[in-house]
Write a structure and sequence with these properties.
By secondary structure, this protein is of the alpha+beta class. The chain has helices at residues 16-20, 22-29, 43-61, 67-100, 106-117, 120-125, and strands at residues 130-142, 145-156, 160-170, 173-182, 190-193.
Length: 200
């Protein structure tokens, strides 16, 4: 049983769960002052305060059998906060990278992403969430319309690869002609849409 009037030295220190996930952490550990972080203009200051004082507040707000139980609970929330940061950064890079793609490549680029992310091999070898880095692209005039050829690197939680795309624009309607994913090492490339399968 913990003595709420005295916090053990071994649990003093910075609390990442309280800092990053402050309102959720506060509800879980009965530190409802953490909800003040939702007030505009106060959020960052409350986050700093909780990072510094979170362990003390959580220790005093609940019954703890031992310091080990307390530290295990806080470590889990530190892990949750790390996952949250990784997912947030990954999604931010994905959005920023989409803005970097030239406007003329955006429609076939988005179409190729959908095809690639639906692939079972892609999910097994690269995984989600993922980020992309647009490497090159060119537009080739064609009697049937215009052909867009481009490639981009793709990095997920499980690995990385390279995507090569050829698409045809006819009367402002895009269709993927060829779509290949190249995986690392000796894994054969995956023909999600083989070139020979397209017919105008």
């Amino acid at each position: 049983m913990n003595n709420r009037n005295e916090m053990p030295e071994e649990i003093k220190g910075w609390n990442w769960g309280a800092f990053i996930l402050c309102p959720f952490w506060g509800i879980r550990f009965g530190v409802y002052r953490a909800l003040l972080s939702l007030i505009p203009g106060m959020g960052f200051f409350v986050m700093i305060w909780l990072g510094l004082r979170g362990n003390k507040l959580a220790w005093e707000a609940d019954y703890w059998v031992s310091t080990y139980q307390f530290k295990q609970a806080q470590r889990r929330w530190s892990a949750y906060s790390l996952i949250y940061v990784i997912l947030t950064v990954s999604l931010t890079f994905a959005v920023v990278n989409l803005d970097r793609v030239d406007e003329e490549f955006v429609p076939p680029f988005e179409m190729s992403l959908k095809e690639v992310s639906d692939s079972k091999n892609f999910k097994d070898k690269i995984g989600t969430p993922f980020t992309t880095d647009f490497n090159y692209g060119r537009i080739i005039p064609n009697e049937a319309g215009e052909i867009s050829e481009f490639g981009y690197s793709i990095i997920g939680l499980k690995g990385q690869g390279y995507v090569s795309v050829s698409a045809l624009n006819q009367n402002d309607e895009w269709k993927i002609r060829c779509l290949y994913v190249f995986y690392p090492e000796k894994t054969p490339k995956e023909a999600i849409i083989p070139c020979g399968s397209y017919s105008q």
